[in-house]
Amino acid sequence: MTSSAPIPEAATTPAESASPWPALWALVIGFFMILVDLTIVTVATPTIIEKLDASVNDVVWVSSAYMLAYAVPVLITGRLGDRFGSKYIYLAGLTVFTLASLWCGLTTTVGALILARVVQGLGASMMTPQTMAIITRIFPAASRGQAMAIWGATAGVALVVGPVLGGVLTDSLGWEWIFFVNIPVGIVAFVMAVLKVPALPTHAHRFDWLGVVLSGSAMFLLCFGIQEGHQKDWAGWIIAMIAGGVVLLVLFLVWQRLNRAEPLVPLSLFRDRNFTVSNAAITCMGAIAASFGFPLMLYAQAVRGYSPLQAALLMVPMAVMSIFLARLVGSLSDRLHPRRVLGFGFATALLGFLLLTWRLSPGVAVWELAVPMGVIGVGNAFIWAPTATTANRNLPMSLAGAGAGVYNATRQVGSVLGAAAIAVLMDSRLAHYLPGAAAHGDAGAAQIRDPHVAELFSKAMQQSLWLPTAMYVVGLIAVMFYERPRHEGFGGHAAAAAAPQGAPAEGR
Questions:
Q1: Burial level of 458, CB count in 10 A (0-12/13-18/19+)?
Q2: What CA–CA distance (Å, rounded) separates 338 from 382?
Q3: How far apart are the C-alpha atoms of 393 and 256, rounded to whole Å?
Q4: Which segments constitute the Major facilitator superfamily (MFS) profile domain (predicted)?
Q5: For 405-433, what is the mean pLDDT?
Q6: Which of 87, 90, 179, 441 is positioned for an S-S bond with 104, CB 3.0–4.6 A?
Q7: How far apart are CA 382 and CA 401, in angstroms?
Q8: What is the full DSSP assignment across 52-73?
Q9: pLDDT digit string (tens) for 136-174?
Q10: Structure pTM?
């Protein structure tokens, strides 16, 4: 490096003389845990329906409450990290999350479980933006792509491992243990973070409280209205809630543009096309991850008579391929155009989902389900990590914290809307094929013995899977708009930078 070369901002942090990798692994433990809890409930859905005398919609709210409480505050919690220290906000959130996990396992009613999940989601919202912001600040630009690849791959693997772990615990120890397992993991994560994560410099911020109120109210009205709409026959007050949510969302965006002090979401972030496209892609993936497990697990347990563990094993091919390809994909993300990497990922996962949906019937052979799941895993491996890596490639360090908050918020928004939409779709399809099943949860509580009923239930779940399939289509279209990255070390970047102004840039 010549004397005129800029010093990486990460080098000005207290961690400049120490390797940042131990801090990354310490953060990954907690990040992995809170993402596992996004999907770990799906495989236990039939058991919770039976043990807590709940409906399908009630149990979907067990996940939606967590996602909603996770999504709404995540923008402001990112700023809290900048103000009071990312390490300390992370540790506070980890404490809240771990204690709320204990509360979840001790509940005896579905209402109490939903309330405990709200608190658990608040803890997760304090943790997530700190992980991405800390990684961005402690890693120099040359190795930041590798670190973000691990962070992104952790998200993809965690959302697949959740149902598998949930099946093992539900089958062997009971549904309560899908929450109790977080306690020892949370303690280990806390100790590791105290020892390995540096306390970074803080910055004064003015908090956009009006933005917080507008965004939070909009999200709540939209998600509650969408999820409860079918249950309430789309009554006038439900339509009013949804309309009110849209109005508040528009007002939020207008306020962010007018706020000259320090908006909650700096709209200048979206001038970077790759950041915008990455947010669209991760919104789709959030919706997919939150939605596809419910119909698949209900089909496996109600139609095929699988135990929670056996049902969860259907996810293993997806998890194996995601883990196996993580390192390869991480290296490709630094060298190949993101349009090629993510285009391949979305197209492959879409193919796998079309195969899975086509073959979802009572008598299909297990391998005919395992193969599509493996194909989906290959596709997802080329989506999760590259999306996270590409999102902040071109952002200046001064906007890293804000970018991390927005990126995580959009992923959670996708998760909330995906969970709400799948509840509506499953209720609708069950009401069409098996009137009464959606309201009482009878079809999902035990194996269906009547072949005719099993066939109808399979059709309902099969048609519900068109939601995540459609999200893969939207994601595939979105990533076609990626432009050539501008980060140092990208193939051909130096030549492109040296080209005369106005010369065409290859691959844009």
A1: buried
A2: 10
A3: 23
A4: 23-487
A5: 86
A6: 179
A7: 25
A8: TT--HHHHHHHHHHHHHHHHTT
A9: 788 876 677 678 778 877 877 787 788 888 888 988 999
A10: 0.80
